[in-house]
Design brief:
alpha/beta, globular, 6-stranded parallel β-sheet, 7-stranded mixed β-sheet, 352 residues, Rossmann fold, Quinone Oxidoreductase, Chain A, domain 1, 11 helices
Length: 352
């Protein structure tokens, strides 16, 4: 039996969330596996939640990272889709049961036995560790072809932030040109939602509590308009004007004002994950035949479709590139939303 190899990453050992160098074993490259040298890894807000055990199920020590772009260095004998030297992506999912109805629908992200890039237990009993590390070993079915014309650094956040907004837009029909989309929150998810909305031909309004976001949304990202959600008169004027709202905010916030912005049959879809329940008023939902929905990343087939769509429409994340030894400062800034709009770790050029 082939021996495992030693990997080097940065891990948190306790709920302080402080990351520091950490050596750990990666499984040997099996017959269906692809070994990936990690070049870039995005920093997702869920990394921060997990590091600090804010969701209550962190298994320490933990190496985060699930927005990974790298290059193939080894393939198993059954691997035909990839070869050494290929540029690939690894996202949130690294395995699932493959046999349930959900997996058969290419919705592995909703499989009850889904295995995440980090903080999951693999069928062999080992704990998964993520992309804040030098190498990943992943089954070929959960590796993505990363388009040649997408920059690997700015493209890395597409593997979580990108698919998290693309999937609900497709599923809930937020793709009809000329329709009006509201995007709540201008962070890692929100700025990509604006870009996808414009690529689909929608009229896009950025909804924010911060007046400083107006110039960014319109001049930098191409939104058609800006709505300050703390201005009662502006909110009143905008009532009943939107076909869809994609809510990316992960903090506790009121939904009633957003429901008021929707037209008859409007859809409010949430992709943020606040740590406390949100209040859901039934009157505006029932009286306007409105829908409140949710969504969580996407399956492998749809994630590949999203990457190809981004390559076709030149969609990438706006990033701030950091080295691994900058990560703790970056996490402090991320907690204050002080980033435009995604940190990406230059793993390949970092001293781990």
């Amino acid at each position: 039996m082939a021996k495992s190899s030693e990997a080097v990453g940065w891990a948190a050992r306790d709920p302080s969330g402080i990351l520091s160098p950490f050596k750990f074993p990666r499984r040997a490259n099996g017959e269906d596996d692809v070994t990936v040298k990690v070049l870039y890894c995005g920093v997702c807000h869920s990394d921060l939640h997990t590091l600090k055990n804010e969701w209550g199920f962190t298994m320490y020590p933990i190496v985060p990272g699930h927005e990974i772009v790298g290059v193939v260095t080894e393939t198993g004998k059954n691997v035909e889709k990839f070869k050494v030297g290929d540029r690939v992506g690894v996202g949130v999912i690294v395995d699932s049961c493959r046999t349930c109805d959900i997996c058969h629908q290419d919705l592995e992200n909703y499989c009850p036995k889904v295995i995440f890039a980090y903080n999951s237990i693999h069928p062999d009993g080992t704990k998964t560790q993520g992309g804040y590390s030098d190498v990943m070993v992943v089954d070929q079915a959960y590796v993505l072809r990363f388009p040649d014309n997408l920059p690997p650094d700015a493209g890395a956040p597409l593997l979580c932030a990108g698919i998290t907004v693309y999937s609900p837009m497709k599923y809930y029909g937020m793709t009809e040109p000329g329709k009006h989309l509201g995007v709540v929150g201008l962070g890692g998810l929100g700025h990509l939602a604006v870009k996808f909305g414009k690529a689909f031909g929608l009229k896009v309004t950025l909804i924010s509590t911060s007046p400083k976001k107006e110039a960014e949304a319109i001049n930098k990202l191409g939104a058609d308009s800006f709505l300050l959600s703390t201005d009662p008169s502006k909110m009143k004027d905008a009532m009943g004007t939107m076909d869809y709202i994609l809510d990316t905010v992960s903090a506790v916030h009121p939904l009633a004002p957003l429901l008021g912005l929707l037209k008859l049959n409007g859809k409010l879809v949430n992709v943020g994950l606040p740590d406390k329940p949100l209040e859901l008023p039934m009157f505006p939902i029932c009286l306007g035949r409105k829908l409140v929905g949710g969504s969580n990343i996407g399956g492998m087939k749809e994630t590949q479709e999203m990457l190809d769509f981004c390559a076709e429409h030149n969609i990438v994340s706006d990033i701030e590139l950091i080295h691994m030894d900058d990560i703790n400062g970056a996490m402090e800034r991320l907690a204050k939303s002080d980033v435009k709009y995604r940190f990406v770790i230059d793993v390949g050029n970092s001293s781990l």
